[in-house]
Amino acid sequence: MSCFAGVTDVGCQHRAIVADSHRPKDLPEFNWINTILSKLKTSLVGAYHAFVFTKYGTRYLGAFVYRLYRRFHLEALPLRLFVAAATIGSRPARWLRQAEESF
Asked: Which Pfam families did the record assign (predicted)?
C-alpha cells in the first residue's frame, strides 16, 4: 500500500506481519488493536443497540474516539467538558440540528 511509504518517510518503521487465518489474535503485535476493537464493539453494542446506527453512526464513532484519546487524562475530562459547554454560548435550534440534516 502506498500509504506506508509516508510512514517510513517520517522516520517510523513499518514491517508487514503475515499471519495465518487461524490464530492472528494470539500474536503479541495485534494485542493493542484487538483491545481497541473489543472496546469499540462493546461500546457500540451495549450503549447504542436500540438506536438507528446508520443515522447516528458517525456521532457514536466520534464519541468513542474522543473517549479513546482522552482516557489518559480522565481527571481533566470533567473540567474540559465544563469549559467547552460554558464557552460555546447559546446557539439557535437550527444550528443544533445541522448535524442531523447532513445525513
From this structure: DDE_Tnp_IS1595
